[in-house]
Write the structure tokens for this entry.
Amino acid sequence: MNLIDAPGTAEADWRAWPGLRDLPALDFAGWRRVAVVAAHPDDEVLGAGGLLAALAGLGAHVRLVAVTDGEASHPHLDPAGVAATRIAETRAALRHLAPCEVVRLGMPDAGVDAADLAARLDGLVRGFDACLAPWEHDAHRDHEAAGRAALDAGAGQGVPVLRFPIWAWHWARPADPRVPWDRARRVPLTAAVRDRKEAAIGCFASQLGTILPPETVAHFTRDHEVFLL
């Protein structure tokens, strides 16, 4: 059994852990151009939706690089139909958060090649103040490939890359030594931003209740988000 399929950590355990509340705040006030890399539709909303909404309030330009269209999330359905649904869900979700320039790469869901993606990201992050991407140790193949590719592209362009955990909130535990908490930063979310993020998450009807059951969604409706430097 892999880490994602194993029983997970309850959100109540995370909320009770003072380690999250004590994380240093992330300073993003100077960001004016930010790229966010999403391995699948909904990654950017779950992991960074609150920060995207905050950046929109600052007038920052956000470029969403959609690596795949998530067509493999329902193997028993027509991939093209699943992709169309998930693209539409993302479009609806972003209306709650921030205007984004969207670049779709159309790479194969469940088959993202990190080296190929890094080469394609190179020009897409050039000149940006920061890049947000899934954590490269998230225990999901595409998330990890996207994280590694973003780090490679960011290093080549001198762009800092901040990674957001997604599945790690499921398989990790408070104070888990597998997570580099010393490099973690916290983004507090106002009540208004939390409401916008929850509305955005609600747009992903194809994922909710199956791939994203309520106990998983609970990890992403906190009053803060966490990023790893």
Observations:
- The CA atoms of residues 117 and 149 lie 6 Å apart.
- The chain has nine helices and seven strands.
